[in-house]
Specification:
- With 493 residues, the protein is of the alpha/beta class.
- The structure holds ligand BES, manganese (II) ion and zinc ion (ZN).
- The site of ligand BES has 14 residues, from loops.
């Protein structure tokens, strides 16, 4: 078992723990404004060696051995709270967690002495602590034996109740991000389409209505595009539909649609071996949608939302779809399959059409690890954003900055759409070498039926990349915080 983490809040008094951390901003040493708050720790600042040199710079640390045992650290948090945007507190929480973990302490008191550290900032700091604490080590036999089984962190603040409720509210979103990471990190032998659908069905406990459609039902709906991807696999496809009704009874829902390819070998157009193991993460879009639905339900968001995820495995076999095959999507559009490795768009075409047809949503946002080309364009720093709606696009750009999950807008234009024309069918699933992410987006746009829509190509941001202050695991959970922020800022109440 991984170490469990508990985060509590308490007043700025009676500070007792194995380890006490005074979390101090620049200029907030006892000579400055912090003095009154620090007294609760019993620190004799004048007698502490190195105190004079402590300026509170981000990461600066002073290790003090106070009389009476215990360990006391004075840790610089950087710029004063009044000069710190809310989204910087998540990273602060992450780097604080790294410091705490290195000490191997079981109980830690963090004294947050800044007047400007309002409850929302403390909520964000706690989110950073949890995000950094996350480990996916369930398949490791040897565990870190020095680390205690349980870690309790108490945040000492001026208003503990307000901080606690901010931590819980922001914590719902963290729950969603961590669920998405778990799903992305899980290997495909454990998490097939059926198992993923079962994980989605577990959201029912939190009040989400979940339906799982099986191949017979998908066939009856005419989803020849989604189903053709699953044909080569021994494991059957699933479509999971998750509804959260926290808004007004008749309000049109927001719709989130995810690509859930539990493993992408490329199919008959098989991928090279190098890094193919990464393709267990090709369900990162579906993971984000599932995590988002959990977040919305956990914090009882005042909104109607629906999540639809297409779950398939893309394998080569004697039953697999071939290059040149023509399939028919639920919309009636015929598709020539040029490349069986361009399977994500086949899955999403039916999932998008079904979603707009059944739910008449206010908008649809789909997430997909759709193209390697978006990694060429944007690396691991931004997800690609494509949209037919300028307002939705700017809301997503802003939400991305606020949530530290950035997106960058890419173009759509008729000249690209024309590249989808096929010799034998209405459209083809793969075009020439250029503009691969854009033509993929145009393919999806053919199935949104004019509904306000945005497509997030998260191939570069869902997994891999380098460790950050808030994530050291492979799976990122990208998209949950971003979309939760979008909902909070524009679509609730
Ligand atoms: N799942 C891949 C895209 C991908 C690549 C995601 C690397 C994450 C990391 C997708 O299904 C795919 O294979 N796309 C092809 C499309 C091409 C065949 C038109 C690609 O990007 O090469
Ligand atoms: Mn593929
Ligand atoms: Zn794929």
């Amino acid at each position: 078992m991984s170490q469990t983490l508990q985060i509590k809040t308490a007043a700025l008094a009676d500070v007792t723990a194995d380890l006490t951390i005074i979390y101090a901003a620049e200029g907030n040493t006892p000579e400055g404004a912090g003095a009154a708050h620090w007294s609760a720790t019993g620190l004799d600042w004048a007698a502490a060696s190195g105190a004079g040199a402590f300026k509170g710079k981000q990461g600066q640390m002073l290790d003090v051995l106070p009389q009476g045992g215990g360990r006391l650290l004075v840790l610089g948090s950087g710029k004063a709270a009044s000069e710190t945007p809310l989204n910087a507190w998540t990273d602060r929480g992450g780097s604080l967690m790294a410091k705490i973990a290195a000490t191997k302490a079981a109980s830690v008191a963090v004294v947050i002495d800044e007047p400007g550290a309002n409850p929302a900032a403390v909520g964000e700091l706690a989110a950073g602590l949890r995000l950094r604490h996350y480990k996916f080590d369930k398949y490791k036999s040897a565990k870190d034996s020095d680390a205690p089984a349980e870690l309790t962190i108490t945040l000492h603040v001026s208003d503990p109740e307000a901080a606690q409720s901010a931590i819980a509210d922001r914590g719902a979103t963290v729950d969603g991000t961590l669920l998405a990471r778990d799903l992305v990190n899980e290997p495909a032998n454990v998490l097939g389409p059926v198992e993923f659908a079962e994980r989605a069905a577990e959201l029912a406990r939190g009040g989400v209505e979940v339906e799982i459609l099986e191949p017979e039902q998908l066939e009856a709906l005419g989803m020849g595009s989604l189903l053709c991807v699953a044909k080569g696999s021994d494991r059957p496809a699933r479509l999971a539909i998750m509804q959260w009704r926290g808004g007004k009874a008749n309000a049109a829902p927001l719709a989130f649609v995810g690509k859930g390819v539990v493993f992408d070998t490329g199919g008959i157009s098989i991928k090279p071996a190098a890094s193919m193991e990464d393709m267990k993460g090709d369900m990162g879009g579906a993971a984000a949608v599932t995590g988002l639905m959990l977040a919305l339900a956990t914090r009882k968001a005042k909104v109607n939302a629906v999540g639809v995820i297409g779950l398939v495995e893309n394998m080569p076999s004697g039953r697999a779809v071939r290059p040149g095959d023509v399939v028919k999507a639920m919309s009636g559009t015929t598709i020539e399959v040029i490349n069986t490795d361009a399977e994500g768009r086949l899955v999403l075409s039916d999932a998008l059409w079904y979603t707009q047809d059944r739910f008449k949503p206010r908008f649809m946002i789909n997430l997909a690890t759709l193209t390697g080309a978006i990694i060429v364009a944007l690396g691991h720093e931004h997800a690609g954003l494509f949209s037919n709606d300028d307002d939705l696009a700017s809301q997503l750009l802003a939400a991305g900055i606020a949530a530290n999950e950035k997106v960058w807008r890419m173009p759509l234009a008729p000249a690209y759409d024309k590249l989808l024309e096929s010799k034998f069918a209405d459209i083809k699933n793969s075009t020439g070498r250029g503009a691969g992410s854009i033509t993929a987006a145009h393919f999806l746009q053919r199935f949104v039926n004019g509904v306000p829509w945005a497509h997030l190509d998260i191939a570069g941001t869902a997994f891999g990349g380098s460790s950050t202050e808030v994530n050291t695991s492979w799976g990122v959970g990208f998209g949950v915080a971003l979309l939760d922020r979008l909902v909070r800022d524009h679509y609730e109440g």
